[in-house]
Amino acid sequence: MLKGKTVLLGVTGGIAAYKMPNLARMLIKFGAEVHVIMTKNACEFITPFTFETLTKHKCITDTFDKDFEYSVEHVSLAKKADLLIIAPATANMIAKLACGIADDMLTTTALACTCPKIIAPAMNTNMYNNPMTLDNIKKLKEYGFEEIPPETGMLANGDTGNGRLPAESVLLDYIMRAIALPHNMEGLNVLVTAGATREKIDPVRFITNRSTGKMGTALARMAMLRGANVTLVAGKIECPLPPFVNVVYAESAEEMFNAVTLHAKDQDIIIKAAAVADYTPKITSQRKIKKNDSNMSLELERTKDILKHLCNDKREGQLICGFSMETENLLENSRKKLIDKNADMIVANSLSDKGAGFEADTNIVTIITRESEVSLGLLSKDDTADAILTELMKMR
């Protein structure tokens, strides 16, 4: 996902510097080219050779080092970079950046960079909460830097408070959001439903389906990476939730209907990917057979049709996409659903093809609109989601 992207990793003199080789490794795994610039104090915590081994590039530590690839290193790296992240960012480094001081390779390069810039402060809690540090961070934000807020917990000196560097996976999430995909959905509000609803029979039992929520969460994640403001209405989800997304939980079909309709008016795009139960069970009679066993009679009450309600109540310019899961006559039945529901798009999702449907990490779908049908081959659910969003954006 980061193939062709260049990330500059600035490492300063904090104990959390030991986490940075793992971040470099993660970035490389996603296809990024990584260049590391270390301050002299950072070299007291970890050696440049570690980064050089991982990145296959010389780790820059000295502004006047003559043994490097580029003639004017700080300018060349700054031009090459798609993103600069400084982690850990010490109070001293933050203060220098806020004042425009360029007295080493990292500060000089940061001053020359026009790409997105991120700082991840890591320091003693009293240093972080010092008004001077907070003012410097505020100033950097005004200059266009993004801060990854430190976590609260036990620090290196045994104190407890905010100032701890977040996990490498969190830093990676911020990098991904910044540069993984073009932000062609910047400013759009997108609502996605995902997962399975549960309809209670009694305090112990319920009716549900096999949906894991993987397709819906992939849509939410890819929309977020494209710059959208995403609300995810989640039923039962069996996969990690995407970061930077507003999650609203809904257990039953009624709860999901209420959550979706509450947020629908503010949305530019709504994608109903959740597998909502068509019926709610209601016990009409129960005859006890023996201890701990019963013969139960259920009456099924049809649940509200979320997709049809949304389509009938949509505002001008709003796009609504639904999913159709069929075991036969997939395209014919899905196009009929498109017309009957008055949707803008239906994603026909096969349940019979290998690698498609519930539980799998891949999918095979056909994207149907009134004007076209786009059949996708076997793709990851992330790639499938990206293709669906591309087709939706063509309709705007």
Task: Tell me about this structure.
- This protein is an alpha/beta fold and 396 residues long.
- It has 2 domains: 6-179, Rossmann fold, CATH 3.40.50; 189-278 and 304-394, 3-Layer(aba) Sandwich (Rossmann fold).
- It contains 13 helices and 21 strands.
- The strands form 6 sheets. It has an 8-stranded mixed sheet, sandwiched between helices. It has a 5-stranded parallel sheet with strand order 2-1-3-4-5, with helices on both faces.
- Helix 3 crosses helix 5.
- The longest helix is centred in the last third of the chain and has 14 residues, at 381-394.
- The radius of gyration is 26 Å and the shape is elongated.
- It starts with 5 loop residues before the first strand and ends with a helix.
Question: Secondary structure elements and their pairing?
Answer:
Blueprint: E1 6-11, H1 20-29, E2 33-38, H2 48-55, H3 73-80, E3 83-89, H4 91-98, H5 105-112, E4 117-121, H6 125-128, H7 131-142, E5 145-147, E6 151-154, E7 160-164, H8 168-179, E8 189-194, E9 199-200, E10 206-207, H9 214-225, E11 229-234, E12 246-249, H10 253-264, E13 269-272, E14 279-290, E15 293-302, H11 306-312, E16 319-326, H12 330-341, E17 345-350, E18 362-363, E19 365-368, E20 373-375, E21 379-380, H13 381-394
Parallel strand pairs: 1-2, 1-3, 3-4, 4-5, 8-11, 8-13, 11-12, 13-16, 16-17
Antiparallel strand pairs: 6-7, 9-10, 14-15, 17-19, 18-21, 19-20
